[in-house]
Amino acid sequence: MKLSRSTLSVALLAALVAPAAHAEIALDVIGNSEVSFEGLVQADYNYFDSDFANLNSDLPDGQDSDNELRRAELVLKGKGPGNIDWVVGYDAKADKWLDVNAKYKLGGDANHYFQLGQFKQPNSLEELSSTKNNDFISKAAVTNTYGVARRLGAAYHYGTNDWGLTASYFTHELTEHPAPTPHGPGFGVRGNWAPINDKGSILHFGLSYMDFDTFQDTVRVRARPQADLAGQRIVDAGNMTNVDRQQTIGGEVMWVTGPFKLQGEYMQNSLDRYNNGNPRQSKDFDSSAWYVSGLWNITGETWGYKDGVPTTPLPDQPASGLWQVGARFDSIDLDDGTVIPGATPIAASAVDGALGGQMDAWTVGVNWYWRSNFKFMLNYVMVDSSRYFVRTPAAPYADNPANNNVLVNRKVDDNPNIIEARVQLYW
């Protein structure tokens, strides 16, 4: 499905003319369902101070920067009939479906429900939080690499405002992609608990586990350098073949006190590979990543808490807006192998397992929520990474690591710096 430019223009015009539409725009009551309309438009700019890899190599224009319309999300929501809530969302930029599901609230309780359709799976505090309120322009490497986002499936949730338990069974995405798709069928569970949950004072803990089949038994674990428009993944474990299942366990913690918020996540990912007679092609692969971040609302606002994730408030003073400053440190380790030295000093080495590299990154940023519908973001990213590179006859240091019995010539440090900016309209 593709939406025409005129359709998108009409949607944007509807948002702009709506008076102070900080939330969804109420449309009508249809079939005993209160129907509303939401939208999100984001435009990004990245400037790359590349080091080893050319981060803008997907656009051979000789430029050090890139810009792109990142999202153009259009969402219809309905409350009713009865205890049913439903949503249909579509991203006109990415040409893909977003949330498309129905939720039945047992006994009318918003914390006790069945859900059927496509929705975000129960993992990752950052992944489950609203995209329009991301603390930083690019999500942390742990979220982008291991997080399972929207999938078709069914879920059951039970809890209160202070705790919750969600179990889900899922398959593929609603929008078709060229094979192989990232995930096959699987299941996920997440528990969240807030022993402190008062206005301006929140302490949250979360634990999740995902287990799913791999499509066509091939998985590639890699990460961009904290820049969504970067054309290179500077850590990359290569194509893992003979993979049976993938499991991820994740832990979350968040603390809010007044205008300050600290949060962090850790995920351990395992690829279970079946025996095909080749020890290197049958070796399991384990990797991990984590981050910790801090945010300060300079203008004094604090966060709320709903469904096990933080909620960002509107500005206390719409004309001057809500100002935030923040910093994040995140790390990912895709090395799970050892180098077997060559027979001579000039001979290439082999790898038992996979050496995808290690990457640490600092991100500092400032956010400005202006009035009720606009957000402006500016980030500066400093990356420190290292990775083994492959030697082949065609390309002496090709950026294309294989994971089994690769020829290793040298270990390369790659430490780029990146400036990122985002303009956002939402309603």
From TrEMBL:
It comes from the Bacteria. Gene3D superfamilies: Porin (2.40.160.10). Residues 1-23 form the signal peptide. The keyword Signal applies. The keyword Cytoplasm does not apply. It holds the Pfam family Porin_O_P. Keywords: Signal. This is OprO/OprP family phosphate-selective porin. It comes from Lysobacter panacisoli.
